[in-house]
Each structure stands twice: as C-alpha cells, then as structure tokens.
Amino acid sequence: MAMADLKNEKPGRPTQAPRERSGWLSRIAPGIRGAFTKRDTPENLWVKCPETGEMLYRPDLEAALWVTPSGHHMRIGAAQRLGITFDEGKYEKISAPSTVEDPLKFPDAKPYGEKLKATRKATGEQDALAIGYGTIHGEPAVVAVQDFAFMGGSLGIAVGEAFIAAAKEAVNRGVPFVIFTAAGGARMQEGTLSLMQMARTTLALNEVKAAGLPYIVVLTDPTTGGVMASYAMLGDIHLAEPNALVGFAGRRVIEQTIRETLPPGFQRAEFLVERGMIDKVVTRAELPAVLSSILKTLMLGRKTSKAA
C-alpha cells in the first residue's frame, strides 16, 4: 500500500461506499417518493377563452366544437371543419392542382418558400384551401374550407387553383358548392398574380351558376380583403358564424378615410344581418342542419325540372 493511502486510512474502520442521499419520505416509506414526482402531462391541456379570459379544459372545448361557454366561436382548421360538416365526419378528399411556388422570388426577412414549408408542417395542409366531397345530412355537396392558420387564409395562386378545382368538381358531379371563408385578403408575396385570382374564381363561379347549381357561402372569422371583394360575396345564400368579422378594409382605415366614428359592432355578422348583407347567423353546431335544409330546397327545383 502506498504511503498516501496509509495516511488517509483510519484504523479499525472499513472503507464504505458513499451512501445515496434520499429525502425523509423515502426513509419513512420506501417507494412513496415516486408518488410525488412530476408526471408528464399533455401540452395545451387548458385553453384560454379569447373573449372572457376563462381557462377551459381542452377535451370539453373540443366536444363543444371549439365554442366557449360564453358563445365565442374559436377558429378551427380545415380538416376539423370538413369533419364536423360532413355526415359522420366521412368525406372524399379532393386534391388541388400543383402550382408554381414563389413565382416572384419575393424578398423578405424569411424566404417565402421557407414560410410555406413551415406553415405546411404546422397545419398539415398544402395551402390555405382544402376541398372535400360528401353528404351533409344526406345532401351531397362539394365543400371548400379556407384555413386562417395557413398564412391568414390568404388568397394566392394555389388557393385560386383549388377554388376552380372545387367549382369544376361540383359541376361534374352535379352537386351544390359550399365554401367556408376565412381570410385576411390577398397574399402579398404573390403580388398581382394573387389579385388575378379574384377574377378567375368569379369566372369559375359563372360555370357553377350556369349549371343551375347552388353556391352557398359561410362566412367565418375573419373574412376580409380580396376574398370579401370576390367569391365571399357572390353566394346564392350567405350564412355567418356568430360575431364573425366580415369586411373589406379594417375599422381604423375606414374611420381615418371617412373621418367619422363607426357604430359599435360595425363589420360583425349580426350588424350585417340587420342591414341585409348576410342572410342568417348560425351557430357552429347548427350549421350542418341549416346547410342541408337550404341545399335540399335549392336543389328541389333542379330535380323537378329534370323529372319533367
């Protein structure tokens, strides 16, 4: 044994391995310590109501179709919207044509192409408009849904192509065309090419109406800008979810332009119903039944004429 070891060695006392420290709970009842360790909990288990600030249990909110106890209709994604609209959540997904990405090579702090990739990963959608075919309380229809989570549901080339594809699908199948709108306007990264979609979608709707098929618009929060100035206001019937923001320009811009204070509730769905711009405000849970009733009524004349 080396001299250094002999100096540190204490006579009559064997060397022991260091004992693992433990809390007093473990000494009283071994195993109880594990009961107080932090458990893994799902993220976003509680959701804050944007209107009241109340914390809501996520599973309860999902069961309520993302409508809070105060009646606030929270924004939902395209896939969920299609699922709650069609019978038993079953529908045939219709693919939109592929388009050129970043045609203008738009300069920004983050390249437009990277923004598209990140948004696709986050939403699971290829672009801001998703299409499905199925039945709504037994009534067949082609349904298109704008997802505000995808770059504000902005209208670009891909959305224009998807809208045209949905309109053609409705004509080919001889069924009504229903759209749920949600957009902040045209997509600035595509410039004039984005604005051209306003005219292209209008021409596609002319084919739907020439075929004698209904076109129903459901305005959800928010529907503004170029979308509002085109296909969102060309429906045979216009429905809206409660308190949805619907308008072309923002309230502040309008007030600064006309130099007047706008009335309370301006550009909200209930305000616009009173002035005849929207036909009816319908809660999310009631929408499938209301849509089915409207589609059945509007298609009745078409079926009668065919039988004659």
CATH architecture name of the largest domain:
Alpha-Beta Complex
**Helix count, DSSP H or I runs of 4 or more residues:** 11
Identify the CATH homologous superfamily of the largest domain: 2-enoyl-CoA Hydratase, Chain A, domain 1
State the low-pLDDT regions, or none: 1-11
The helicity comes to 25-40%
Overall body shape: globular
Give the mean pLDDT.
89
Rg, rounded, reads 29 Å
CATH level-1 class of the largest domain: Alpha Beta
Structural summary, described in words:
By secondary structure, this protein is of the alpha/beta class. The protein folds into two domains: 32 residues, no CATH class; 233 residues, 2-enoyl-CoA Hydratase, Chain A, domain 1 (Alpha-Beta Complex), CATH 3.90.226.10. The protein contains eleven helices and nine strands. It has a seven-stranded mixed β-sheet with strand order 3-4-5-6-7-8-9, sandwiched between helices. The chain has a two-stranded antiparallel ribbon with strand order 1-2. Helix 6 links the parallel strand 5 and strand 6. Helix 6 runs parallel beside helix 7. It is globular and about 55 Å long. The N terminus is likely disordered.
